């Protein structure tokens, strides 16, 4: 009897979640639901923010944060979510929800880390960016603690991946951001020891599949692209060995590219082409499910440092260690121009139209007009704090966080 | 229900740590507040969650029901943390957060007095007590000044840390005023209670400024006297998994075939303040090699302990022949207490064996072949061996 009651309650709960998801649909275009945005490109397809930014005029609000972090804020409807870690060992984990309109704290949940919190001093336990399916947020920390909360802050489920897999950790810290595809959350927990990727049922936190991954530290995040034949969504897992395309529901491998790839900047998808930080940048076009993808071009001159590549229109942009932006042709990888910015950079630029917004590690936001002949910095805002995150960009607003603050920069 | 912060002060100072028994009966007295809800059953569901998400669905339903309970249920949820593992703690914390948020936004009063009693009952889970403390601090910020002085030796490392910090601040203030004798006494008190490395370092520096001796290896409980044997082969990192003779027997007079030569045990003692045992000192800066370090720990009684290890090489740790843990990560960083491994000491002689592997990397930052190991309880308080030798003099002291 109890079991039947619980089953009924489960069904009702799923119906409510489905209803809430449908309700959320009209505003999804304005959301920024994961690392580099809802589609993982870092780009909005419509006007988002002025190019000429001014500190006094455009910093709409600034809110103090209780702990460190370099995860990106994400935006769902009228809420911006951000993760932090506090305490001498960063073992207090925070998930915060602020109002987009005025930055007011709507709710905060705190948890205790169950996995290892050791990391390099530059990074933080709050390194992976949360992800959302529009009705829930999935928040992962470097300690391998994973939480699913609804938008009101009620815990739906949790996992302690280090409790399950005791050697899954990296003494430098983990940073891969999870990604939600349909009702599967994909997490890459890749390290020198117990290295794996897992597809987790977004409804209950249980494994749908789990696969061993190369035993090597890896900070890249998965991306989504369509299967070339079926059009079905595939998740692309990048590692030092290359990239592997996986069915997110079953964990079955669709295809593989084995010519190595970076372990820091992540791939980006544009127009059915996968641009992989591999031997510089390698452009791949997937073919049938059981064949290696076609290599369209490769350019060592587009080699990215920490920030991931970004595609705007017909061009690809990468940032090197010296803070130089390189614009390359999406068609053949040829270099078009280079522009030296004030670096260095950890976060990936975001943009819309012809503009890219770069925030360097010193908190200097630089807006670049990419359609001038050699690229041009058209405005700057100095936030005055160390910023290592990738910003979030929605209609009319850019969100940036440091170890101390969350900013909204808006029209 | 108390009415203001002053009431809380009175209550806590009057009862101190002796009023613990009140909290024991608290759970029972609160049962009647949520008659329609079987709180114990819901809590048991949360406490029963298993690995790989097992029990998540049932826990979620239990939490939804518990969230409807009134503010007095908060104490029972916190008490339930006593029987929860790390994941259960987080489930219960999230439940408590929802209740607190709702009650506060409704203008309802939370049971501040009962929270105070709960906090003072050191039998409760340290994290539950910290939760109570932070909630009290939020509702009655002035209360913390009264509470902290009694928490200098608290089982909660978070509460203890705040109490220690007050002493450190006071000691520093005395030192700045030239009152060195008083400062020294306060630093001593702080050192005795400090468990976090940053505080210990800060306090030790203060004492040394005042000309006082500090035995850090003893304070931490580092194991400093070892026998080591090697090198064995670790070509292709295969030595991590390979079983070499010391894993099967400990015979300090034995000789075994090692990497390119016969190997025997030799004495290696560290005088490093943080117990770092530099294996390179015994064998030279070799690559693709494995060594073992062995020591004996005399314990007066059988007791659970934590081995806390820092190591940037691959390692394995055995206690009395039982493999406790191992990890094959190389050169990603090292810090004190990097790994916490539970073990059970038996009364009498205990055999501690560490395998430490060096890989093939040739960069400057991959030369280190070393580890630091200490024995303590779960708060980080050193557990010293009955046969602990005197702390070796540091190089600096020897030079003096």
Draw up the topology in text.
The complex is a heterodimer of chains A (411) and B (400).
Chain A: H1 2-24, E1 43-44, H2 55-58, E2 59-64, E3 74-76, E4 79-86, E5 92-99, E6 105-112, E7 131-132, E8 136-140, E9 145-150, E10 155-160, H3 161-164, E11 179-181, E12 184-189, E13 196-201, E14 207-212, E15 223-226, E16 233-239, E17 242-246, E18 253-257, E19 268-270, E20 273-276, E21 281-285, E22 294-299, E23 310-312, E24 315-319, E25 324-329, E26 335-340, E27 350-352, E28 355-359, E29 364-369, E30 376-382, E31 392-394, E32 397-401, E33 405-410
Parallel strand pairs in A: 1-27
Antiparallel strand pairs in A: 2-33, 3-4, 4-5, 5-6, 7-8, 8-9, 9-10, 11-12, 12-13, 13-14, 15-16, 16-17, 17-18, 19-20, 20-21, 21-22, 23-24, 24-25, 25-26, 27-28, 28-29, 29-30, 31-32, 32-33
Chain B: H1 5-15, H2 20-24, H3 26-30, H4 39-47, H5 56-66, H6 73-80, H7 86-105, H8 112-120, H9 126-139, H10 143-147, H11 157-176, H12 180-193, H13 197-209, H14 216-220, E1 225-233, E2 255-257, E3 262-264, E4 266-269, E5 277-278, H15 280-283, E6 289-299, E7 303-311, E8 314-319, E9 322-327, E10 339-345, E11 348-358, E12 370-376, H16 395-399
Antiparallel strand pairs in B: 1-4, 1-6, 2-3, 5-12, 6-11, 7-10, 7-12, 8-9, 8-11
Helix pairs in contact in B: 1-8, 4-5, 6-7, 8-9, 11-12, 11-13, 12-13
């Amino acid at each position: 009897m109890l079991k039947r009651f619980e089953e009924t309650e489960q069904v009702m709960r799923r119906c409510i979640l489905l209803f809430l998801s449908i309700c959320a649909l009209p505003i999804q275009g304005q959301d920024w639901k994961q690392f580099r945005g809802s589609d993982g490109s870092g780009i909005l397809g419509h006007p988002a923010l002025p190019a000429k930014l001014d500190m006094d005029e455009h910093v709409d609000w600034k809110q103090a944060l209780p702990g460190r972090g370099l995860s990106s804020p994400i935006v769902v409807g009228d809420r911006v979510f951000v993760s932090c870690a506090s305490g001498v060992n960063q073992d207090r984990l925070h998930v915060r929800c602020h109002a987009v309109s005025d930055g007011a704290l709507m709710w905060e949940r705190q948890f205790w880390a169950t996995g290892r919190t050791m990391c390099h001093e530059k990074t933080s336990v709050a390194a992976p960016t949360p992800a959302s399916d529009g009705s829930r947020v999935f928040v992962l920390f470097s300690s391998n603690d994973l939480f699913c909360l609804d938008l009101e802050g009620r815990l739906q489920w949790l996992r302690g991946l280090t409790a399950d897999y005791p050697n899954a950790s990296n003494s430098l810290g983990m940073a891969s951001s999870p990604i939600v595809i349909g009702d599967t959350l994909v997490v890459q927990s890749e390290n020198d020891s117990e290295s794996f990727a897992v597809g987790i049922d977004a409804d209950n936190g249980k494994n749908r599949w789990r696969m061993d991954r190369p035993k090597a530290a890896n900070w890249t995040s998965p991306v989504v692209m369509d299967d070339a034949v079926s059009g079905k969504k595939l998740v692309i897992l990048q590692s030092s060995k290359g990239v592997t395309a996986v069915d997110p529901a079953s964990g079955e491998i669709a295809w593989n590219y084995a010519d190595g790839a970076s372990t820091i900047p992540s791939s980006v998808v544009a127009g059915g082409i996968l641009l992989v930080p591999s031997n510089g940048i390698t452009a791949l076009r997937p073919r049938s499910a059981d064949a290696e993808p076609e290599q369209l071009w490769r350019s060592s001159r587009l080699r990215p440092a920490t920030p991931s590549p970004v595609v705007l229109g017909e061009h690809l942009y990468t940032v090197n260690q010296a803070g130089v932006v390189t614009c390359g042709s999406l068609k053949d990888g040829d270099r078009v121009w280079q522009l030296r910015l004030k670096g260095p950079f950890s976060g990936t630029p975001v943009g819309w139209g012809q503009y890219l917004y770069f925030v360097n590690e010193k908190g200097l936001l630089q807006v670049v007009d990419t359609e001038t002949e050699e690229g041009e910095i058209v405005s700057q805002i100095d936030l005055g704090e160390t910023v290592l995150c990738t910003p979030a960009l929605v209609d009319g607003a850019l969100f940036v966080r440091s170890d101390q603050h969350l900013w909204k920069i808006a029209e | 229900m108390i009415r203001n912060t002053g009431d809380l002060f009175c209550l806590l100072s009057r009862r101190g740590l002796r009023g613990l028994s009140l909290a024991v009966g608290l759970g029972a007295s609160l049962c009647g507040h949520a008659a329609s809800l079987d709180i114990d059953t819901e809590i048991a569901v949360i406490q029963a969650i298993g690995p790989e998400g097992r029990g998540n669905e049932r826990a979620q339903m239990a939490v939804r029901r518990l969230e409807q309970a009134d503010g007095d249920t908060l104490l029972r949820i916190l008490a339930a943390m006593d029987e929860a593992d790390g994941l259960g703690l987080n489930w219960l914390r999230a439940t408590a957060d929802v209740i607190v948020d709702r009650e506060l936004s409704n203008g309802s009063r939370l049971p501040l007095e009962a929270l105070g009693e709960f906090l003072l009952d050191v039998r409760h889970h340290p994290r539950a007590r910290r939760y109570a403390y932070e909630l009290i601090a939020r509702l009655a910020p002035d209360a913390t000044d009264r509470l902290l002085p009694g928490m200098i030796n608290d089982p909660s490392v978070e509460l203890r840390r705040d109490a220690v910090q007050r002493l450190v601040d006071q000691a520093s203030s005395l030192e700045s005023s030239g009152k060195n004798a008083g400062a020294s006494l306060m630093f001593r008190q702080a050192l005795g209670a400090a468990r976090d490395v940053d505080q210990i370092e800060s306090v030790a520096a203060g004492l040394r400024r005042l000309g006082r001796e500090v035995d850090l290896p003893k304070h931490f409980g580092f194991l400093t006297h070892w026998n080591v044997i090697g090198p064995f082969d670790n070509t292709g990192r295969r030595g991590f998994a390979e079983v070499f003779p010391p894993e099967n027997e400990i015979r300090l007079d034995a000789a075994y075939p090692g990497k390119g030569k016969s190997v025997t045990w030799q004495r290696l003692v560290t005088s490093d303040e943080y117990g770092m045992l530099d294996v390179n000192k015994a064998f030279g800066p070799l690559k693709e090699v494995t060594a073992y370090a062995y020591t004996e720990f005399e314990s007066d009684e059988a007791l659970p302990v934590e081995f806390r290890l820092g190591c940037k090489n691959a390692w394995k740790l055995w206690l009395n022949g039982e493999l406790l843990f191992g990890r094959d990560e190389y050169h990603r960083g090292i810090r004190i207490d990097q790994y916490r491994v539970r073990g059970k000491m038996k009364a009498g002689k205990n055999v501690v064996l560490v395998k430490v592997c060096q890989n093939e990397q040739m960069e400057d930052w991959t030369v280190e072949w070393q580890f630091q190991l200490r024995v303590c309880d779960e708060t980080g308080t050193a557990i010293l061996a009955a046969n602990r030798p005197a702390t070796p003099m540091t190089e600096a002291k020897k030079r003096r």
